[in-house]
User: What shape does this take?
Amino acid sequence: MTALGSYNDFHHNFMKDCLLLACCNSGTSLYAGFVIFSVLGFMAHDQGIPISEVAEKGPGLAFIAYPKAISQMGGTWAQGIFSVCFFMMIIMLGIGSQFVGVEGFVTAVVDVVPQYLRVGYRRQVFVAIVTAISYLIGLSMVTNGGMFVFQLFDYYSASGMCLLWVCFFECIAVAWVSPGIGQWMFDIRTMLGYNINGFWRYWLPICWSYLTPLLTMSILVSYFVNYEPLTYNKTYLYPLWAQMFGWVLALTSMLAIPGYFIYWQTTRAISASEMANIPLEIVNEKEKVVRSQEDNASSPQDVSVLVN
Assistant: This one.
């Protein structure tokens, strides 16, 4: 969302977009829940087994349970319509998720080293390399054992603890580290062109500073406390080497946040120590030059000079 939002105008009313996106996301989840669990309830009643035994959570729910329910509709026109709509939805979700994932990663890397990737067609070449690597990784997920590879990536690196970890530190960085919740609200007012009043003026800082970090960390702690080794279809237990590979995938993204924080603090400390060794006369001279430049920039220029 940060990468895609960076393409908006500076004074774009992103508050409406955020509220609309949150409502659409929650509404879609509720609607999908009604659809999926009504189908699971029908299948459990038809087979005479508990709902928990109909299908396992994860990819089996979307690619096994629901298509099986559609096949039980019989040779009617509804079966064809629902089949086309369901698999078109899966395709659209996949394409949309891929666009957002690639664009978010590419934008972040390009913003870090713009002097290298914003020259000529280097950005396009970098995007081609990223998509080619993603394609090769995706090929391993459409083989005979592809579902095992897919669930390994999905369980450890694409959802769950990684997302909760990132959301927690994102809120901490914005609200408590830099720029701070006060400066953050001031920047929002500058972008929108008006003050956020009423309910949202107090609710947003409380959410970003307290509620969201507390909620994400509570879910993350509960996840680790109730952690169970990855299994497929409740029968196949992934071997130890596969679980270790999954934890490597997870820690690659999770440890990058505290790792960069340590690097940032270290570089700041080194810069501060170097500034302390500069003679005071040089520092005062630099301050005089900066102040004189600011005074010249703020003072009105002579009209004759402008004319000449």
About this structure: The beta strands are 231-232, 236-237. The radius of gyration is 27 Å. Residues 230 and 238 are 6 Å apart (CA to CA).
